[in-house]
Amino acid sequence: MKNRILLIEDEAATRFGLVRYFAREGYEVVEAEDLTVAARLFASERFDAVLLDINLPDGNGLNFIDTIREHDQAIPIIVITGTGDIPVAVESMQRGADNFLVKPVDNAGLAIFLRKTLEIGSLKRRQAAHQRLERHKEPFWSVHHAMQVVREHAQIAADSESPVLITGETGTGKGVLARWIHRNSRRGQDEFVEVNCSGLRGELLAREIFGNVRGAFTSADQDRKGLLDIADHGTLFLDEIGDMGLEVQAPFLKVLEEKQYRRLGDIKLIKSDFRLISATNRDIAGMVQNSQFRQDLLYRINLLTIHLPPLRERKSDIPIIARALLKNLNQPELPLPDGILSLLTGYDWPGNIRELKNVLERALLLARGGELRAEHFAGLGTPPPPAPSSVREVEAAHILSVLAESGGNVDLAASRLSISRATLYRRIKQLRGT
Ligand SMILES: Nc1ncnc2c1ncn2[C@@H]1O[C@H](COP(=O)(O)OP(=O)(O)OP(=O)(O)O)[C@@H](O)[C@H]1O
């Protein structure tokens, strides 16, 4: 799809030149000769960027920056000013413009400006959307006692600066938990730098972590920052640390001990104040026994270990997690009938939360916006287990399903069950572990 530019410029000749040039560059340019037309267009149409002249027949373009920013914080604004208008240009930046150019405009220069500004704008939007999504990922949906321990330890991890090792099978949410710890730590506003050690072996991983100077190896045609550099003041998340080769383990241990390192091919020592969170789905202690992982490194990274249990060991959480995942998939109101809940709780979920999320996404596609039915979950295998028999099991199943239907809201569940909030808490406590 073509990027749409709103060009606000009163000189017809300048407009003509810019429209022709940008049409050739693959943009769609919509023209406004004054602020009145611009305001009408901006209110009714969607644009990817605004090119704004300051001196317009019906007012000062600077005021229009405020109007744009009231409605859209992210859209790139490039201001075009006459020579000698530098103070105006500075003011335009202070009011929220992204860039300014001085007339006569060099079209090629403006095109480069525009491309860069649009790239940054789109990155900002993606980052904002990603952060919004990440904020909704709450790692602790649970009534299970094992997750209570996880929650307590995660809070301790967030309050401290010590290295944390998160263990658990694939798809249990180790990455989600690592981000939660970072966000809730005092480094939460700084970088969260993630590297997956299984995708990059040997020297490739070392290059990513340490960076390099020009000429350090054959293809090193320029200096490159390492992730340790970028994670300074923030958090470095090493996913699948069990897959880190021994040749990288030794220098990495040194970094942890000394908090400084050298880029590949460099002699200069660089300091980095990063906080380490690692994760693995492998048995690292067993790897130490087999000399595949250094014991001294393990001692350094596992000061605090948090284990995420697989979904099959906390099946009582499946209704709550499924509800929450539906909410994240923008389907908070969609009912999950008992038949489907028993299908979901009857399955062992080797891929854990990731698999549950995929299964729900597939079911939503198959349901085409309608109600979810059992046939949308075909392939989950085993039929639902026999209905609970003891009074305690019946009570547990009922409480859990009402809690799930109430989206984990204890007040709502208590009122639906016609018991007090305190009684419901007491019952949940008694039932934990069932
Ligand atoms: N609490 C949660 N909220 C929302 N989504 C979650 C949650 N936990 C896990 N997921 C989803 O499940 C998937 C797997 O999560 P994540 O990558 O954190 O797991 P992992 O244990 O790190 O997996 P792996 O070991 O394969 O790297 C992701 O799509 C993630 O969004």
UniProtKB/TrEMBL annotation:
Pfam families per the UniProt record, alphabetical: AAA_lid_14, HTH_8, Response_reg, Sigma54_activat
Listed name of the protein: Alginate biosynthesis transcriptional regulatory protein AlgB
Organism: Trichlorobacter ammonificans
Gene3D superfamilies in the record: 1.10.8.60, 3.40.50.2300, Homeodomain-like, P-loop containing nucleotide triphosphate hydrolases
Annotated positions of the 4-aspartylphosphate modification: D53
Superkingdom to which the source organism belongs: Bacteria
Cross-referenced PROSITE patterns: RESPONSE_REGULATORY (PS50110), SIGMA54_INTERACT_1 (PS00675), SIGMA54_INTERACT_3 (PS00688), SIGMA54_INTERACT_4 (PS50045)
Domain Response regulatory positions: 4-118
SMART domains the UniProt entry points to: AAA, REC
Sigma-54 factor interaction domain: residues covered: 146-365
Keyword NADP: no
Keyword terms of this UniProt record: ATP-binding, Nucleotide-binding, Phosphoprotein, Transcription, Transcription regulation
